[in-house]
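Supplementary material to the annual report.
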Amino acid sequence: MNYAGEPTGVYFLIDNKSFYASVEATMRGLNPLHTLMVVMSEQENTNGGLILATSPLAKKHYHLQANVSRQRDLPQDENLMVVPPRMNLYIQRNIQINDIFRRFVADEDLFPYSIDESILDLTHSWRLFGDTPREVAVRIQKTVRKELGLYTTIGIGDNPVQAKLALDLYAKHTADLIGEIHYETVPEKIWTVDDLTEIWGIGNRMAKRLNRLGIHTMNELAHANPYLIKEKLGEIGSQLYATAWGIDRTSLHQPYQVKSRSLGNSQVLPRDYRTQEEIETVIKEIGEQVASRLRHHHVLASRFVLGIGFSYASAEASGRSGFSVGLRLDATADDAPIAKALIRAFRQQWQDETIRNIAVYSSDFSDDSSYQLSLFTSFARHERRLRTERALDLIRERFGFTALVYARSLTEGGTAINRASLVGGHNGGNSYE
Amino acid sequence: MGAIHMNNDLKILLARIKILFKLQYQTRYWLTVVDDHFDHTYNFFFHSQRKHQRERSIPVHAVDTYDLEYLEPLIQSLRKVYQFSITFVGFEDEYWPSNHRIIQRKRLWDE
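Predicted assembly:
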């Protein structure tokens, strides 16, 4: 294989080992690698508790999955420490970590990828910090460990996909927490992988589809007929073939263009909701939340989708898991017409099922500097309402969402007040305000 | 600095502990104070453990005044209200200013 024409640089993919649990360990003066700890969200709607993060030792000890598991999968062990999440603290730590990275790369070469992962393009700067990229990696690890107490895992590659594979396949399993893949080491590092699902981008379903083509290992994928793969699996197949050869032609510096934007909110209810009034309270609350976000982004939306998910028992009985209704309105970001339309749509479809999930999404945005006049509502009235809502937004921005709420949110079914303090559905944190 | 400041930290601590301290049957309660070398704060955690069950650790407060002269009277006032044990973490080789006694006797295995 001739890699001469392929883009070549020095890329690091850095992730934090068990991020949330590690942050909690350091706050308690404990070593993140030596602590038996789980971070558990006990919000009302998590049904007894949801494990958000597990320390490396706890993972090993209790054979827990890396991702979210349930409280009931966790043994009652006296040596295990259970702590509540503090999402705001983790966001703050993530910013501090990225600030450390910025000492090693220019701002435009740092790409935060998720709350605990960042991509660094060190092509132009690594020589300033060491004789080899690995030396620089060790230096970054030591800096983060010294200043924040956290352990970082680093994948090094000649392009982003190699760095990602180096991280997943090697860095996470070695003592020094560093993995490296380069064009010349692709055969020994990637082709030796026998379990396809270990590869980023290949899940169980994709593995099965590859199996059907007679491909069971990365070696077989790399030496399969690329035209056949493309014909059978489409564009994604070509991409996986490129991954097998460690090839990645994406440029991180060109921002990804989203085809169509949408904005929405959804929530799992803390219990089954049965009465129309309770359900409509939450639909209205979510609708208002979406409207407020539209105003914050200075856009109007003309398409809305209401999604309703039934409770398990109701889904069994009625044979459908829920329904979703699309609505088209005159472009708007007002609470009242959005809530009204959503509730009307709900009444049309709802047949007394009990409900556990509610979602509202909006799309087809236009700029809020223009407004579609209507024959049926006076502009003066519209403007008055708009000014009220703007004022409401401003007050909430300054004093918090709960400073002003609709009385309806205080009724039995309302969830807005409780959710206002959550980040991503989990406890945002306390006592560190 | 001074008394007003401390009263505020003490008030927060007492109010939050009160909510968590439920005096349940066969349950051990204790408090951990951490010298947080990274943020330069003293972090307080409320721990509880029911017999044969998992230990729970809830953050209660972080004291910003990073000074033992300030921490010592705060702990003393706290002890006047609650008598459960207090574990100190991250205070190796540090001594209470008033009587020069060592704060943390042994290092935890997982520190």
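Chain B has one domain: 2-110.
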